[in-house]
Amino acid sequence: MIDRIKCFKGAHLRKEVHLSTVSGVASTKPEMVSYFDKKVKAIEVITTKSYQVNPWPGNREPVICETESGVFGNSVGLRNPGMEYVLPRLREIKKKMRCILNVSVSGNRPEDFITLVKNFDEVADSIELNFSCPHAAAGFGAAIGSDINIATEYVEKIRKACPDQKSALIIKLTPNVDNIGEIAKSVIDAGADGIAAINTVTPIVHKQKGIDEPILNNKLGGKGGQSGKNVHSRAIECIKEIRRAIGSEPIIYGMGGVFSGYDAASLVDAGADVVGCGSVLGKVTQKYWPEFLCCIKDEATATLQGKKVELRSQDFIRTYNEMLYTRHTVTKAYCHTKDILLLELDGTLDCHAGEFAFLWLPGKGEKPFSVAHNQPLTFLIRSRGEFTKALFDLKEGDTIYTRGLYGKPLEHVRKDNCLLIAGGSGVAVLPSVLRMIEKDGSKVEILVGTTAEVNGCDGKPLFADYFNGRGNYTVVADNGKPGRILDSIPEKLNDSSTTAAYLVGPEKFMAIAADRLLSLGMKKEDIYLSMERSTLCGIGLCGECVCGDRLTCQWGTFQRYDYLLENAPELLK
To answer: Which residue in 428, 387, 403 sits closest to 328, CA to CA?
Structure first.
């Protein structure tokens, strides 16, 4: 497979532009690897997130922040699902893959890297050793790449243990040293085929203006690496130094602050054979990534050829900061049941069905939640872990922060009848769906199932006062049979040809509900599912909320059944 990347050798001398994704950004899940390969033609190299032998939880959220537009901090902490989980998925993707696959790996001892190289060698065109993460646990990342002797020893041991390696060996180095060129030459002399640079710049404590507490949540006091447009000059310096040290033949995967074709061209001029685009994707809506990256490539190519360049890429970049936090005061916090909290805040969010916001408590964490009501601003919290426990401890007058909105308002087709079905805490999404379809004049049936007692401490089901009078409203307790409310579908479904269904709740619950609706004659395109996937950032960088080939933080949480059936059938089982 090393033959596949030979075309990149000397690309910087020929003034060629080859674009790649970068580790830890966007192409972080197999589904997103497949997306870039099939949908983003300007990308030639796809770099995975850094995988370890065993799963690793990384740091608790927040792990990504944007303190000013285009300037990011991150402290993901090498969160990954482990080698055994991802390898079979990459194996399937690789069978039909157009792009070069650059698999990033991480460990804290040579034996781990050797295991990773031996296993990923069958699918990778190049394997990138992460010697550079500045906020990893002790012994990982920059702890290796900052020491020339340790980095060299690791490469020597890997080469000795893997003499038949078919993929190229790429070493990703940290910019947070005074001798990056010297380290690069040493690892090349030890047997590496190329260098990747740069990773994030010197960790600092990231704060938002007007908020004293650090944003990022880790054991480093909130320190996190810097990326985005402010690290571009450092990337140029490092790539130039590396190229001078290693000569023209070894490949350099260069990255750092590429926000335009000019930026990409400057890295090629500095000595990069492949140019990575990372943080900028958090400033461009996923729908436009293919066109945006084509603009980057065209602009860079024209610049290197000395032609006049129109920077069309800038039309796609959002200039405002989507990750700013807004301060709120708790006006009411009460437990509906021992496991369900209703949290009311001052202020408002103009939230629509398909959108969501993050709640943040400095030092405690953050998570995404649907907005149940805009006035008063209300969130439904189900007790799940450490962060939700902290939310349950809030009292009237306490301070909490929101950021967002993220996602996208649901685009729907008006139907004479609408069937709304919610399970568990999914009921929090129904008010926003109701607000949307009320304008259509549709007849509404509302079915709500609960795993808890039907009545809370106030003697009423959740949001009963809101639902009553807005349609035919039925609430059923499971009483030992999960999804009992779904038994009510046949009698509540009006003419299937004139009905749209909106499903909210656990994915298994929605899959069963959709199957029943289909069996009763409903069309796939008339069934909408609220896919509230886990996300860390809300702006498209982390890739965690992928659903098929869409990020729900970009496309909205509601997806049609026919799309899911074609693009993410595993989510309907």
So the answer is: 403
8 A C-beta contact, residue 445 and residue 498: no
Residue 502 domain-assigned (yes or no): yes
Rounded Cα–Cα distance for residues 91 and 572 (Å):
23
Render pLDDT for 20-50 as a digit per residue (tens, 0 to 9). 999 999 999 999 999 999 999 999 999 999 9
Picking from 166, 169, 143, the residue whose alpha carbon sits closest to that of residue 156 is: 169
CA 342 to chain centroid, in Å, comes to 28
199 and 74 Cβ atoms separated by less than 8 Å: no
Tokens at 142, concatenated: 């920059």
3-class DSSP state of 381: strand
Task: Clarify whether residues 435 and 551 are in a common domain.
Answer: yes
Together in a domain, 259 and 333: no
Q: In which band, very low, low, confident or very high, does the pLDDT at 252 lie, cut at 50, 70 and 90?
A: very high
Going from the C-alpha of 456 to that of each of 154, 337, 342, 473, the distances in angstroms are 59, 5, 11, 17
Tokens (6 digits) for 178? 């005074």
In a domain, 412, yes or no: no
Decide if 64 contacts 92 (C-beta within 8 A).
no
In tens, the pLDDT along 434-471 reads 988 888 888 998 998 887 555 555 557 788 888 887 88
What are the CA-CA distances from residue 418 to residues 132, 441, 526, 527 (Å)?
53, 10, 10, 10
181 lies in a domain? yes
457 conformational bin, left if phi > 0, alpha if psi -120 to 50, beta if neither:
alpha
What positions carry a catalytic annotation? Answer: 133
For the chain, the C-alpha Rg in angstroms (whole number) is 25
CATH number of the domain that 224 lies in? Answer: 3.20.20.70
Determine the 3-state secondary structure of 274 from DSSP.
Answer: strand
Residue 345: other Cβ atoms inside 10 A: 25
Amino acid at 27: S
DSSP letters spanning 170-230 = EEEE-SSSS-HHHHHHHHHHTT--EEEE---EEEEE---TT--S-SS-STTTTEEEEEEGG
Please say which residue of 254, 281, 316 terminates a domain.
316
Q: Is 58 part of a structural domain of the chain?
A: yes
Whether omega before 62 lies within 30 degrees of 0, making that bond cis, reads: yes
Say which CATH number the domain at 348 has: 2.40.30.10
- What is the tally of structural domains in the chain? 3
Residues 296 and 179 placed together within one structural domain of the fold = yes
Please tell me the distance from the alpha carbon of residue 2 to that of residue 263, in angstroms, as a whole number. 28
The residues with which 275 forms a beta bridge, in sequence order, are: 19, 254
Strand-pair category, 168-173 with 194-197: parallel
Range of the domain at 431: 417-572
- By DSSP bridging, strand 340-345 and strand 377-382 are antiparallel
Q: What CATH number should be reported for the domain holding residue 435?
A: 3.40.50.80
